[in-house]
Amino acid sequence: MDKSTKKTIIQQLINDDSKSISYFKPKESPKRSIVWQSFSIICVDGKKQEIVSCDKCKQLMAYRARDGTNSLARHTRSCKNESSISSSNSSNQNQVTDYFSSSKTSIIPKKIKDRVKIARVEFIALDSRPFETVFGEGFMKLAQSLFDAGKYFSSTSTVNLKDSIPSPVTVSRNVEDLYKKKQSELAKLCINIKYYCIICDFWTKRYTGLSYCGLALRYITNDYRINNFILGCFLYDIQTQSASNVFDDIGVVLNNNYLSYFTVIDKELLEEVCKFLELFEEVINKLSQEERPTIYMVIPLRQLLINHCEPQFEDTAELKELKVFLGKWT
To answer: GO CC terms on record (predicted)?
Structure first.
């Protein structure tokens, strides 16, 4: 059967809404031509035919793998030109696709990737920025927002980017509002989580000699993902960064409402917990020895900790809860 006859028969089956007709969409991959984004292979009774259908105009075309996709690419260009002419009259009218976003990720053509790469290099060179800047989370969000904004304009539109980029003064005014919003979200998060820790870090700038203290909040989610939030970075001019000095300055950094929680902690319970954790410190010190091997001590010390985490009758309810929690990980 020649191609023309086969196309005629398949077209008739399509017109009759035959159940024997189905469409196969080739999977997207870097090695596969992008023209397959616009075509589907015709299947009759589940068997692929050497006939493809244009997804836009539904025209049937003959296709063989050994012949390549040049003819399909030419049809795609002509089909786009026709659709652009027909849609120019309704460019100001909302389309149904304006009301939902596709979850399908489009493959970026190599030509666009090269232009973005050159633009990144020019950005780093002209503004004297570190190379890591273009891989930061903030830069990625900015780039994504610019890509999303570009979807609202056609390729023939001329857009002055300065109209959409706020001035440095405007940006600085919005930093405080964004900070307050994130601070409120973090406060709500801390209320809902049970366990978290606050980490202190100190460093001194080599050239200025100024010392800083950084505070970060860190916690682990139920699916074992670690989240880290920077609470602040502050000038710290005390030479001895001892625990007593750090504690004296915590009240300046943390809100007094949260600091009041510390004052109501049961001191006897705190002492009991610290005494319970002493054995863990001893085990860590034994396994951290560098002068002799410690691998043979792992199993007996692990069993020692398991026995130590067994709840006792005289333990308080809080300590029993802690032992049960630690017993799951030992």
So the answer is: nucleus
